């Protein structure tokens, strides 16, 4: 009987300790603004609305309130980015975009540099309706399908530098009517047909350096009335058509071709 009473008392003390512990824990997880903070997943740091992770798997729990994710060497699996505005996911051997990123509707900036993407498909970014900054540099993309950028009229900066592009479909960037910076440097591009940029007349920065461009005809760049910086250095240009720069704009500085 005495033992039983001691047990009950011990039990009550146990419960009291547990309840006090829980109260302390819940008090600690509340900030002044009422946001409940959560522990960062392994290999990650989590500060305010930014989650950063290195050297781990992609199957991670995203704490509530995170809007920016920065991942380096985060391999495999897929990431549900519902409510994420900025995603940088680099050096992570991504090759299948459809598998890697789920629910991209909120993304405004996306940097997928230094991955293994070789192929994109028609309407690849159709659910990325709010994207305005896309960086696909340093992948191994060797083809752009004709309708790859359908639905991407908000993209203003596009970087495809350091890929393996040889030929790109006529006016493939047409859906991006607000595009102002296009970086196609370090590919194997050979030429651009007349009026290639007809629907991208707001481009201000066009980087075509380090390609294999042999010929640019007089109307290839004619529609780019806002052009402020054009880089054609390190190509195989031997003919620059008379009239290439006869557009209404001031002739841009043309670096000597190699
Ligand atoms: C991630 O791994 C690389 C290579 O092993 C290492 O150099 C780097 O310091 C690691 N980064 C972090 C933040 O642990
Ligand atoms: C885009 O979203 C729709 C509706 O949620 C879905 O059916 C479709 O598979 C998505 N497309 C891609 C390429 O993920
Ligand atoms: C894209 O990423 C590359 C490599 O990190 C960087 O050099 C480049 O400035 C980026 N471009 C844009 C437009 O973000
Ligand atoms: C174009 O891409 C190259 C390679 O990623 C990068 O070094 C350069 O800074 C980019 N230029 C701009 C203006 O983004
Ligand atoms: C560059 O173009 C020339 C002429 O069309 C071709 O002979 C050469 O193989 C090309 N080089 C590369 C690296 O694609």
From TrEMBL:
UniProt signal peptide: 1-27
Name used for this protein in its record: Uncharacterized protein
Source species: Rhamnusium bicolor
Keywords: Leucine-rich repeat, Repeat, Signal
UniProt xrefs under SMART domains: LRR_TYP (SM00369)
Tagged with keyword ATP-binding: no
SUPFAM superfamilies the record matches: L domain-like
């Amino acid at each position: 009987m005495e033992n039983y009473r001691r047990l009950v008392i011990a039990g009550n003390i146990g419960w009291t300790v547990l309840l006090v512990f829980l109260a302390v824990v819940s008090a600690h997880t509340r900030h002044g603004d009422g946001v409940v903070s959560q522990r960062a997943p392994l290999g990650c740091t989590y500060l305010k609305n930014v989650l950063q992770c290195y050297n781990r798997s992609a199957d991670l729990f995203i704490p509530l309130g995170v809007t920016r994710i920065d991942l380096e060497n985060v391999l495999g699996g897929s990431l549900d980015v519902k409510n994420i505005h900025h995603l940088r996911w680099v050096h992570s051997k991504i090759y299948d975009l459809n598998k890697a990123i789920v629910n991209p509707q909120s993304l405004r900036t996306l940097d997928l540099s230094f991955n293994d993407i070789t192929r994109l498909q028609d309407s690849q970014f159709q659910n990325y309706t709010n994207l305005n900054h896309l960086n696909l540099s340093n992948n191994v993309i060797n083809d752009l399908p004709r309708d790859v950028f359908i639905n991407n009229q908000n993209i203003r900066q596009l970087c495809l530098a350091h890929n393996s592009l040889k030929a790109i479909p006529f006016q493939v960037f047409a859906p991006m009517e607000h595009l102002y910076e296009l970086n196609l440097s370090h590919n194997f591009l050979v030429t651009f047909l007349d009026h290639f940029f007809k629907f991208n007349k707001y481009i201000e920065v066009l980087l075509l350096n380090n390609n294999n461009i042999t010929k640019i005809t007089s109307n290839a760049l004619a529609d780019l009335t806002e052009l402020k910086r054009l880089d054609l250095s390190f190509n195989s240009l031997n003919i620059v058509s008379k009239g290439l720069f006869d557009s209404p704009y001031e002739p841009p500085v043309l670096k000597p071709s190699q």
